[in-house]
Write a structure and sequence with these properties.
By secondary structure, the protein is α/β, with parallel strands linked by helices. The chain has a single domain, classed as P-loop containing nucleotide triphosphate hydrolases (Rossmann fold, 3-Layer(aba) Sandwich), CATH 3.40.50. It is about 60% helix and about 10% strand. It contains 10 helices and 5 strands; from the N terminus they run E-H-E-H-H-H-H-E-H-E-H-H-E-H-H. The protein has a 5-stranded parallel β-sheet with strand order 2-3-1-4-5. Helix 1 packs parallel to helix 10, helix 2 packs across helix 3 and helix 2 packs across helix 5. It is globular, with a radius of gyration of 17 Å.
Length: about 200
């Protein structure tokens, strides 16, 4: 079983992946994808963190403008390395968080169970404040920026729109269900799939 989790920023993606991993007894990969991609690509973990899931409109424009058969941007190189890592990880049962994994694996013919996690903005701004990743930026603006850059990256490398229900087996509102309620729903569904497999 290969499970992918796509998510809006601060929608508890990592926490829910970890809980599912423990409940189902399979590995989950989030930060590990960064480490493995750094080894494959030769870029630093900082570069992979910065360019492996986020891209601004300006950077995307420059990337597309310069992209030729003789020019390979760091974004392109990191994406290809991430793709290689994701395909390798998917040879065993696992959960993969983000990084266009649902589309990468679908295009490679790998059967997956694809999840999308979302929540209203106020809920995610509060979560952002708990995480403390926003630095000197206003938390609300930080959430908007992370969402936009993540959506731009996803579209640039898959041609799909992040959050489109057609690309997922289930889409859950973490704010309505609560993080624990979301975990309970997913464990119920996925344990049943494990028993049938």
């Amino acid at each position: 079983m290969v499970i992918t989790i796509s998510r809006e920023y601060a929608a508890y993606g990592r926490s829910i992946a970890k809980a599912l991993s423990e409940a189902l007894g399979i590995n989950y990969y989030d930060v590990d994808v960064i480490r493995k991609t750094a080894k494959v690509s030769g870029y630093s973990e900082e570069d992979v963190t910065r360019e492996g899931e986020y891209i601004s409109d300006g950077r995307r424009f420059i990337n597309e403008f310069l992209s030729t058969s003789t020019y390979n941007s760091s974004y392109d190189a990191i994406f290809q390395a991430q793709r290689e890592v994701i395909l390798e990880l998917a040879k065993e049962d696992c959960i993969i968080v983000g990084r266009c994994s649902n589309i990468i694996l679908r295009e490679a013919g790998v059967e997956t169970f694809d999840i999308f996690l979302h929540a209203d903005k106020d809920f995610r701004v509060r979560r952002c404040e708990e995480l403390g990743e926003y630095g000197k930026t206003d938390p609300e603006k930080f959430v908007d920026r992370c969402d936009h850059w993540r959506e731009t990256y996803y579209h640039a490398y898959t041609g799909h729109t992040m959050g489109n229900y057609k690309d997922y087996d289930i889409s859950l509102n973490v704010a309505k269900l609560t993080p624990q309620g979301t975990i309970d729903v997913l464990v119920g569904i996925l344990k049943d799939k494990v028993r049938k497999a």
